[in-house]
Design a protein that fits this description.
By secondary structure, the chain is of the alpha/beta class. It contains 12 helices and 17 strands. It has a 7-stranded mixed β-sheet with strand order 3-2-1-6-7-14-15, sandwiched between helices. Helix 1 packs parallel to helix 11 and helix 7 crosses helix 8.
Length: about 400
């Protein structure tokens, strides 16, 4: 019997529970025991396996009974954190006083000491007798999965993120539901924006990549602004006002990625950096709204859709992809194959290398996908492209 561990890290998205259930059900059919690691990488850094309470907090044996209904809801049954085992700002009590590699990290002018507790993660995996680990996450979570792969752990990665920005795959779990939710919310709010004859400004996730804003605009016929292209503020406002004047209901709308910026403007950040060096971004939609009021003397409606997009049940596409990725991961285990990520490549399911963290997130190809003059998606020349209109 093989024993597989599974964890979810970073932000939650719809579809995670479908992966977990798919792995558990398939495992029960092929004689594989599945151990849930709770709270992401924290489950392997903070667990004290000699303490029954700590073990119960972080280690959960999974079976058909306790996963039977989990795919009916969103979120993650195993819970999640943004823990980075290679850059721990503090050590759990039972590890204090032990000798771990240290480094100095400076972010936003603040220098702090961080610890790399990878050696402890390896000890815990060995103590749990885990033969293979499935890590479900975005760029940050999978960057540590890549590190474990390099030190000899058999890792299988599954990409999830509403931003759809993990390299080596055309699709990440959570993306379809996020777009569906964004389109629904915007269509509902058209009545309010139109009733008050205003400019609607919608903000969605997308720190470094504009896929969520771009695809929402694609199916909603909106203008959009993405992080990959610094836009001309005056030109955007002129276009929005022209749209408003041409509209019989006298309103217009634009959707912005959270990381979108115009020339001469930088999105403000605030708060302490997380374990992967990210600080929270101020609402660029609010800042754009103030510029529209000041320059065009027009009233606005600003709507932050970010967390709305990751809540609730997964749609059909995310459930299907998630379940398939989970079963593909089990195929890898049965074939004794690790160091790979489940992916969609050229529109087909595929096994690909775990992305190199040094390359950063996958971003929108502006030249082929975005009209920088009109601030709209490119709609032409799609024949022959995969269903999601981009290649990994």
């Amino acid at each position: 019997m093989k024993r597989m561990g599974i964890l979810t890290g970073g932000g939650d998205v719809p579809g995670l529970n479908s992966v977990i259930k798919g792995v558990v059900y398939r495992g029960s059919e092929v004689g594989c025991e599945v151990i849930g690691i709770r709270r992401g990488w924290e489950g392997l850094t903070h667990v004290n396996l000699e303490d029954p309470a700590s073990r119960a907090r972080y280690v959960m044996p999974l079976n058909r009974d306790n996963t039977r209904t989990i795919d009916r809801t969103g979120g993650t049954f195993l819970h999640t954190t943004r823990t980075n085992p290679s850059k721990m700002k503090s050590l759990p009590e039972h590890l204090k006083g032990q000798d771990f590699p240290q480094a100095e990290v400076t972010k936003a002018g603040v220098t702090s000491t961080v610890f790399d507790v990878t050696s402890q993660v390896l000890k815990n995996l060995e103590a749990l007798c885990i033969d293979c680990l499935i890590a479900i996450g975005g760029d940050d979570t999978l960057s540590y999965a890549a590190k474990l792969d390099k030190v000899g752990v058999k890792v299988i990665a599954i990409p999830k993120t509403m931003d759809n920005d993990v390299r080596n795959t055309e699709y990440c779990i959570g993306f379809s539901t996020a777009i569906t939710r964004a389109v629904d919310a915007i269509e509902r709010q058209r009545t309010t924006v139109g009733s008050h004859e205003r400019v609607g400004v919608f903000r969605v996730f997308g720190r470094d990549a504009g896929y969520t804003a771009l695809y929402t605009a694609y199916v909603s016929s909106l203008r959009c602004c993405i992080p990959e292209h610094k836009f001309d503020l005056g030109k955007l406002i002129d276009l929005l006002i022209a749209d408003k004047r041409r509209n019989p209901s006298n309103y217009s709308m634009v959707v912005l990625s959270e990381g979108a910026e115009w020339e001469g403007y930088r999105v403000r950040e605030y708060g302490e950096a997380d374990a992967y060096g990210h600080r929270k971004k101020a609402n660029v939609g609010e800042d754009l709204s103030e510029e529209i009021k000041k320059r065009a003397k027009e009233e606005t409606v600003v709507s932050d859709l970010t967390y709305e997009l990751r809540s609730g049940e997964a749609d059909f596409v995310d459930k299907m992809v998630a379940s398939t990725f989970g079963n593909m991961a089990m195929d890898c285990l049965m074939e004794n194959h690790g160091g790979v990520m489940m992916a969609i490549e050229n529109g087909c399911y595929a096994r690909v290398p775990i992305p190199d963290p040094k390359l950063g997130p996958r971003t929108v190809d502006v030249a082929s996908m975005y009209n920088t003059e009109r601030f709209r998606p490119n709609y032409a020349t799609k024949t022959g492209l995969p269903i999601f209109l981009t290649r990994a």
